[in-house]
């Protein structure tokens, strides 16, 4: 597994993503946003969290229109894996690689805390080291994580099983007070139609070491690293 | 040529910022406000001299970057020819 972590001006979780990938056994390197091509033989592109371009205009809007994103689109079209975390998820929806939009949290606050997620399905390249219905505890840190789609988009996501993770409480009860930001259908992350692109607001890359609060996030990177 | 582009949220899209501003105005006892929706304004200067070409260019700018048409509408207005 060879991974490229894209670094935009204002990204700040690229080091965490790199560390998580390496801890899981993947080969990973940072790629600067001014590059026009991805390194040869890359299997996975990671768009890390942060505040690319200072969240100017709309979160992820400017990064999504950079030339390197044409290379990411081509990579995804070939079936290559793409993982967008937090601001990376925002970049993916702005770039058209995933549907919908991430709006201001319903309570208008930046939310930075631990959050439980329910794994919607484990039969994907990103979640094979989890079990369907498993409850994991990871971090969230975002102001614009309120996932919105039109009725048609939500129906398609649900109908085709493209929801990756849902917000839940410690007991696995989905939604209600377990939904931190107002996201429709308690959506925390979604897949593309071919399950090779995943965008999610929570930060699994921050929960890979017992020293910093848990290891529930490492499963995602082990799932990815276990692939060729 | 000067132009103004206005980007607003589509009807039915929840606007928590607009709601908070609405609440603040009410608490300031500014009477008679029914509702508030927040948007963005871009004041743009153009090299183009032709009005039609300028409008077409600004629409392209909106479609490519300034508005996210999943949730936003845009309006292009030519303010003044130089």
Would you write up a description of this structure?
The complex is a heterodimer of chains A (228) and B (82). By secondary structure, chain A is of the alpha/beta class. Chain A has one domain: 3-Layer(aba) Sandwich (Rossmann fold), CATH 3.40.50. Helices cover 20% and strands 26% of the residues of chain A. Chain A is built from 5 helices and 11 strands. In chain A, the strands form 2 sheets. Chain A has a 9-stranded mixed sheet, sandwiched between helices. Chain A has a two-stranded antiparallel sheet with strand order 5-8. In chain B, 34% of the residues lie in helices and 29% in strands. Chain B has a single domain, classed as Phosphoribosylformylglycinamidine synthase subunit PurS (Mth169, Chain: A, 2-Layer Sandwich). Chain B has a 3-stranded antiparallel sheet, with helices on one face. Classes of the chains: A alpha/beta (228), B alpha+beta (82). The A-B interface holds A 57-58, 61-62, 65, 93-94, 99-101, 103-108, 148-150, 182 and B 13-14, 16-17, 20, 64-66, 68, 70-71.
């Amino acid at each position: 597994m060879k991974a490229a972590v894209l670094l935009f001006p204002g990204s700040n979780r690229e080091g965490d993503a790199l560390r998580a990938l390496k801890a899981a056994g993947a080969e990973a390197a940072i790629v600067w946003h001014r590059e026009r091509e991805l390194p040869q033989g890359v299997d996975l592109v990671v768009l890390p969290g942060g505040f690319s371009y200072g969240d100017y205009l709309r979160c992820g809007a400017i990064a999504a229109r950079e030339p390197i994103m044409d290379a990411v689109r081509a990579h995804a079209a070939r079936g290559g894996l793409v993982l967008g975390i937090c601001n990376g998820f925002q970049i993916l929806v702005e770039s058209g690689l995933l549907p919908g939009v991430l709006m201001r949290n319903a309570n208008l606050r930046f939310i930075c805390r631990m959050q439980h997620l329910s794994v919607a399905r484990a039969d994907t390249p990103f979640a094979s080291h989890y079990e369907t219905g498993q409850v994991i505890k990871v971090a969230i840190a975002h102001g614009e994580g309120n996932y919105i789609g039109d009725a048609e988009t939500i129906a398609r996501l649900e109908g085709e099983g493209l929801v990756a993770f849902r917000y839940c409480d410690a007991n696995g009860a989905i939604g209600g007070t377990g939904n931190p930001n107002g996201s429709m259908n308690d959506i925390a992350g979604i897949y593309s139609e071919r399950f090779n692109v995943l965008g999610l607001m929570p930060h699994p890359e921050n929960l890979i070491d017992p020293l910093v609060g848990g290891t529930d996030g490492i499963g995602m990177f082990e799932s990815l690293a276990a692939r060729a | 040529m000067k132009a103004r582009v206005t980007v607003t949220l589509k009807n039915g899209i929840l606007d928590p910022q607009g709601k908070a501003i609405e609440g603040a105005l009410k608490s300031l006892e500014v009477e008679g406000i029914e509702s508030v929706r927040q948007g963005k304004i871009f004041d743009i200067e153009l090299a183009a001299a032709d009005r039609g070409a300028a409008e077409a260019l600004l629409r392209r700018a909106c479609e490519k970057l300034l508005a996210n048409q999943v949730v936003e509408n845009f309006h292009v207005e030519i303010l003044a020819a130089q």
